Amino acid sequence: MIDQLKGSRILFAENNFDSLIDFLNDNSSSQIFVLTDENTRKHCLPLITHALKNNFTINNIEIESGEHNKKIETCIFVWNKLSEFGADKNSLLINLGGGVVTDIGGFVASTYLRGINFINIPTSLMGMVDASIGGKNGVDRDSIKNQIGLISFPLLVFIFPEFLKTLNDRNFKNGLAEIYKHGLIADKNLWNRLLLNKINRTNIKEILVSAIEIKSSIVSEDPFELGKRKILNFGHSIGHALESCLLNSEGQQLFHGEAIVAGMIMETWLSEKYCGLTPEESNEITNNLFTIFGKENFSQLDFDEFLGYLKHDKKNQHQQFNFSLLNAIGSCKWNIPVSKSDVKIVFDRYNAI
Amino acid sequence: MIDQLKGSRILFAENNFDSLIDFLNDNSSSQIFVLTDENTRKHCLPLITHALKNNFTINNIEIESGEHNKKIETCIFVWNKLSEFGADKNSLLINLGGGVVTDIGGFVASTYLRGINFINIPTSLMGMVDASIGGKNGVDRDSIKNQIGLISFPLLVFIFPEFLKTLNDRNFKNGLAEIYKHGLIADKNLWNRLLLNKINRTNIKEILVSAIEIKSSIVSEDPFELGKRKILNFGHSIGHALESCLLNSEGQQLFHGEAIVAGMIMETWLSEKYCGLTPEESNEITNNLFTIFGKENFSQLDFDEFLGYLKHDKKNQHQQFNFSLLNAIGSCKWNIPVSKSDVKIVFDRYNAI
Questions:
Q1: Of A153, B125, B300, B306, which has fewest CB within 10 angstroms of its CB?
Q2: CB atoms within 10 A of CB A328
Q3: What does the alpha-carbon distance between residue A71 and residue B80 come to, in Å, rounded to a whole number?
C-alpha cells in the first residue's frame, strides 16, 4: 500500500490478485459488477474472472472504448444495466480500463442510488499514474472535456503493472506524458531520472511508484482542488482545448497525453513570461518533450474555436484565463492570469516549428 | 439561523430578503443563476429579482414543472444552459421552487464542472420541510424514484414562509404529510400539536421551525445515511413504489405527500407486526391520517408491478426488503426485513377500506 486518502487506498499487485481478493472479502458487497470496454473485456477481464471465480460472482457491463464515448448517454446505458441487474446500494462496481472507463464508472457509481462503492483497476499507464487516482470522474459535454462530473474517491485503486504489457507504443507514451508532467510540477529528481534512462514496459515500476506517490500526495493535500491541486493541470488548459477541438473535428483523434505534451510545451513558454521560468530550463523542457514525444500538427485548427474551448477551462474565474505555470523544473504555481494575445503567440510559435 | 450542517446553513427570512443579500455579499460569485419552473418564475422570481436588483445580475433558467420532468434529460438541458451562459466554477445556482426544482438543481450544480455552489430557496411546504434540506438530490430513471443522484449540501437553505401563500390546498397538504411523518418518527409532542390544531398557512410558522429542526438534526447526525437517517424514509418504501407505478400510468398523477401518507398507513400496520407498535397507537395513527388526508384509490394498480418498484428501494440489501418502522409514536427503527407476503397483506387491507 502506498497511500491512503479520503477512504481511497492504493494497492500495488505482485503479479497476482491475492490482495484484491483479501480486500473484497473484507468489504463484502451484495453484487459485484465489472465495467470494461471491448479491449479490457478481451485482454484483462479473463485474468480477474479467473482469479476471483472461487470466491465471487461477477457481472460484466461493457461500454465502447474511445473518448468520444465519454458522454452522458454512456452513463445512462450503465445506470440502466445496473438497474436491470438489480444492483442495490450495497453493490460494488469495479472499473477495469483506461481513463474513459474509470471516469465513466466513477461517475456512474457515485450517482447510482446516490452512491455505491467502486474500485478502479487501471489497465493503461495513463490510468495508473493519473486518471484512476484522485477521485476525479466525469464525462464530456458537447466536446467540452469533463464538463459534467464529480470528485468522489474509489474505495480502492488496484495497480497491476502486468496489464502494461497489453499496451501498444502509442498508448504507453500517452501515459508517459503525465509522468513527465508529475516531474515538471513537483519533482526535479523524477524529471532527471526520466531523461537519464529511456522508460519502457520492463523498467517502469519504480518510476510508476514515484509518479503515483506525487499525485497521491498532492491530492491528499487538497482533495477538492481549492488550491494546490491545480498544479496537476499544468499543460491541461491548452491541452484540453486542443483535445476538444479535435474531438469535434473529422480528422485523427488526439490522445490525451499527446494533447497535454503540446499543452505543456506552450505553457512552458508562457511560464517564462508569467512565472519566472529561466530560458535555459524552458529550453531543456521543450527540447526534451519535442525529442521524446514529437510534434503534433494543429495547422488545421481554427484559433477562435480553440479559444472558445479554452474559455470553458475549470480554472478560469470571472471570464479570465487562469493557468498553472512553472517557476522552475519541479515547481509550479497556480491561478496565474494569462492574456489571450499571449496564448495566441505560443499557439502560433508551436505551429511554426 | 436554525442549524449548520456540513457547510449548509438554514436562514429563516423575516418577510424580506435582507439576510439573503448579506449572504450573497459575503460569498461572492462570478455569476448568479436562478433555476425556476414556469410557476415559480411567475409567482416567486419577481420578488427575488426586485430585492436583488441593486446588487446582483441574475440569469434565469426555466424548466417545466412536474415530477415527470425530474429526469436526466432535464439535467442535460440545464447543464447546456449553464455552459451557454459561460458559467464558471465560481458561479452560483439558486434553486427556486419545490422538490423537483431543488432536486434537479442540486444535482446539476453538484456535477457541473465537478461542482459549483448552490442555494435552495424552497417555495413549497414540501420543499421547506423536506426536499430542500439534507443534501439529497437527483432524478428519476425509468419511473424509479431518485435512482440517479447524490448527497451534496447546498451552501444555504433560505426559508421564506411568505411563499406558502402562493400554494393551493393540495400542494399545502402535500407538505403537511412530511411534517406528520417528522412527528411520527421523532417527536410525539409535534404529533400531538398537529392533532390539537388544524394547521393552515397563517399558523404554521412554529410547526415549520420544529419540523425543519427535526430533519436537520437527524441529517447532521448521519449525513450520508449509513444508519439513523434511514428513519426519514418511514412511509417512503411503499410510498415511492406507489408513486413510481402511477408515474408510469396514464391516469392521475399522485403527489409525493399523498403517496407517502398511504405508505405511512401501510407501514404503520407493518410496524405492529415487525416493530412492536401497539394496536392503540397504530389505530391513532391510521385513523388520523385517513381523517386528515383521505384515502387514495389504488384499485387500478397491479401488485406485481408495485412489487417490481419496491425492489428498487435504496434501503434494500441482498435482495431483501428493508423498512424503517415505528416502535411507538415518536420513535422509529431501521433496517427491518419485511416479507413480500406481509406487504401484500397491508396493500390489500388499504385497498379494501
A1: B300
A2: 14
A3: 13
- Chain B closest-CA separation from residue A43 CA (Å): 31
- The alpha-carbon gap from A136 to the nearest alpha carbon of chain B, in Å, equals 8
Report the C-alpha gap between B162 and B56 in whole angstroms: 22
Residue A332 pairs with which residues in a beta bridge? A326
Instruction: Among A88, A316, A318, select the one facing B316 at the smallest CB separation.
Output: A88
Are A153 and A8 spatial neighbours (Cβ–Cβ below 8 Å)?
Answer: yes
Please list the residues that pair with A95 across neighbouring strands. A35, A120
Residue in chain A nearest B320 by alpha carbon? A88
**Averaged pLDDT, A137-156:** 93
Say if residues A74 and B133 touch (Cβ distance below 8 Å): no
B chain contacts of residue A227, beta-carbon cutoff 8 Å: none
Residues 6+ apart with CB under 8 A from A218: A186, A228, A229, A231, A232
- Enumerate the β-bridge partners of residue B328: B331
Amino acid at A210: S
A296: Cβ–Cβ under 8 A, 6 or more apart, which residues?
Answer: A242, A254, A258, A259, A261, A262
The answer to whether the CB of A258 falls within 8 A of the CB of A174 is yes
Per-residue pLDDT reduced to its tens digit, B258-275: 999 999 999 999 999 999
- For B282, other C-beta atoms within 10 Å of its C-beta total 19
Residue A39 to residue A194: CA distance in whole angstroms: 29
Is the pLDDT at A2 greater than 50, yes or no?
Answer: no
Tens digits of residue pLDDT in B299-343: 889 999 999 999 988 888 877 899 999 999 999 999 999 999 999
A341/A249 Cα distance (integer angstroms): 24
A196-248 confidence digits (pLDDT tens): 988 888 889 999 999 999 999 999 999 999 999 999 999 999 999 999 988 76
3-state DSSP assignment of residue B37:
strand
The grid coordinates of residue B157 equal: 437553505
The C-alpha cell that represents B1 in the structure block = 439561523
Rounded CA gap, A117 and A97, in Å? 17
Set of chain B residues whose Cβ sits within 8 Å of the Cβ of A138:
111, 114
Contacts A148 to B, Cβ<8 Å: 79, 111-112
pTM: 0.92
Crossing angle (nearest 10°) for helices B279-293 and B256-275: 170
Distance CA B335, CA A132 (A): 34
